[in-house]
Design brief:
The protein is mainly α. Helix content is 81%, strand content 0%. The longest helix is centred in the middle third of the chain and has 29 residues, at 81-109. The protein is globular. The two termini are 35 Å apart.
């Protein structure tokens, strides 16, 4: 029993150490998951009213707005104009990439299918690929303001 407790303590310390080393990535990931759920919901509902690309764009724009406010506060701890411009430029890159992925998937791969599976796969690729591209681009380009860091 004592050996089991020691093993749990070691595992717990490893997880805590990993989180401390990657806390900004974890925060960015949690914010992105929340924004993704918002984006997917808005996109799917919007498809009932407007075209696929317009619906996807509405979801992305609402997601961008929420993500900027959350990430600038909890990841980069920096809300200056330069951070906003860099965030906006990387957003435009991700926006074009995401819409390109949706277009190729829905028009070419799924040949215009309106089925949920076509939506889900297209949206999944348009979320995952830009997520990693923008995370690493922003990590390189947007510097965290250490003097404003809360924890």
């Amino acid at each position: 029993m004592n050996e089991y407790c020691e093993e749990r303590k070691v595992r717990s310390k490893m997880i805590k150490d990993w989180y401390v080393q990657h806390r900004f990535f974890c925060r960015y990931l949690m914010i992105s998951i929340f924004v993704t759920l918002l984006d997917v919901g808005v996109s799917r509902i919007s498809e009932m009213l407007v075209s696929i690309i317009v619906a996807n764009s509405i979801g992305i724009l609402i997601g961008f707005t929420v993500q900027y406010f959350l990430a600038s506060r909890h990841v980069y701890n920096n809300k200056d104009m330069a951070t906003f411009i860099k965030f906006l430029l990387t957003f435009v890159f991700g926006f074009i990439l995401a819409n390109g992925i949706v277009y190729v998937c829905r028009v070419s791969v799924f040949q215009g299918s309106e089925e949920f599976i076509a939506f889900a796969i297209s949206k999944g690729f348009s979320i995952a690929i830009p997520f990693f591209a923008m995370y690493f681009l922003r990590k390189y380009w947007i510097k965290t303001n250490k003097s404003m860091e809360l924890y």
